[in-house]
Request: fold
Amino acid sequence: MGIMAEQMTDTSVLDDVAENNGPVPGEVNPRVVDYAILLKPRVMSLVLFTGIVGIVMAPGSIDWLTALIAIACIGVGAGASGAINMWYDRDIDSQMERTMDRPIPAGRMNPGNALWFGVVLSVFAVAAMAVWVNTMSAALLAGTIIYYVFIYTVWLKRRTPQNIVIGGGSGALPPMIGWAAVTGDVTFNSFLLFAIIFMWTPPHFWALALFRSGDYEKAGVPMMPIVSGVSETKKQMLIYTVLLLPITVAPAFTGLISIPAGVIIGALGLWFIRHAVVVMKSEGFEAPRSMFKFSILHLFLIFVILLADRGVQSVL
Reply:
């Protein structure tokens, strides 16, 4: 589930605590910290945010308790799939600088414990969603976890440079899950929320891959810059940012948001395209790093604008 942001996980602070020999009075137990790291908390926060946007943007109403349960299930499901991902990827995590300090490759946790932790949480999240929310949202949550674990992690990640393109669907589903929690179904507008994240993921991830290609190459992960070359990667990044623009403004034409909100989102999209153009013309890592950082802000601001516009519309 966390593919849209798994590369943003920064567990350095948690890792520092976990590497202590034992708990210090007043501090969190290192084993608890390690289990928290398995859940990829930064990924979970982004998944929760987009899921909440789906709930807010959906037509109809939902009582606060059901909404909280849905949000909790989305978060637990995201964390669970992250734990299973860390179990399966423990070999390549040990080869990559940004992941070698995770609990399993660092030798602080038995791999089997991580697997069972993820499986139990996955079953619990889906079951709770089915019992206390509705079957459609539960089915989407189950599909998201299965997609992330089996299609992306097991099948695509180590086999094709299109791993991010095809696998991006798992990280794009949380707003649809939130939407379904309210409505019990999937509509074109909910699909637009999915499509925004789906099309945003490749240029975001490839920007990272451009300045982390050595890490991926050492671990044997066939990212686009390694397999197809830097030039082709930059070309694909520009194509995706251009294709992303009309998708991000489409909600203004379907009535999901207002025209002024669509204009603001469109301006953000043009700035994202500008970053891709700069990357195409640049050498070195600074431009890709800058685009990567902006891409995170770009997606966040799109969903903030969606929420703000809905709030303004409700007042008016």
Observations:
- The two ends are 36 Å apart (CA to CA).
